[in-house]
Design goal:
By secondary structure, the protein is of the alpha+beta class. It folds into 2 domains: 95 residues, Phosphorylase Kinase, domain 1, CATH 3.30.200.20; 178 residues, Aminoglycoside 3'-phosphotransferase, Chain: A, domain 2 (Alpha-Beta Complex).
Length: 295
Amino acid sequence: MTTSAAAPARQTLELACSAVGLDTDGAEPVRLAENQIWRLPGQQVIVRIARSGQGAAAGREARVARWLAENDVPAVRLVDVEQPVEADGRPVTFWKELPPHEHGTPGDVAQLLRQLHALPAPDLELGYLDPFVRITERLQAATTLHKADRSWLHGLHQDLAAAWAARPAGRPDCAVHGDAWPGNLIRTASGPVMMDLERFSLGPPEWDLVSTAVRTRTTGAVTATEYEEFCAAYGSDVTDWPGYEILAGARELRMVTYAAQHAASNPEWAGQAQHRIDCLRGRRGPRPWNWKGIM
């Protein structure tokens, strides 16, 4: 990011930190995009500046973090200040910096999800899970797509939404992470830790489990042996549930539209976005497919 573009971000950081008594000397940008992430190295604090209009979501994320701490779930912890705060019209939250970490293993993911899903539903306003959040906006932003592919994806979205509404019964609803992949359920030297809490909601636990199943059956990122270990650690196999194909289809659609959205602003991802669409449309043979990561 250029110096001129970074200046407003720094101003927002300074306003937010001043409001809670944190020092911004030596602050380092981690990521400056729609959501801005800063590190305060001398204080081991991570500052997350969300998009304008996301105040309710930031407040919910803070409440979820407190609930996880109360229930001893290993997860990112809030700094002990009143939050979120608003700076330049943007909600800001403050987090204790994690020690060095790496992506979690399938076993780590299973361990954290089993602990989370065993908890009684919290007395929090989480909202109900929407597997299709931002799909429409992503398709609108995916300007590199061929018209026929865009139309087909819209149709798939409608079909999956109808199937979701009529899905078979599964396990009782509970608090779900919402985006349970190894980049969000990570491993530190002291064990696995849950992070990125913005998609927390009330919903079927199967949604969290589908992420790893899709990484096995669809993308090939998880081996069959690793998936067996995942199921053993969690205690069940979501692919045995009659509604699996519906949730897996929703997850695949999210992965395709995510890639397509970002390909519009970064041409190097256009090939991967088209490859994912071609896979769903039956142009690349049967699953599993080799999908490379975006961003």
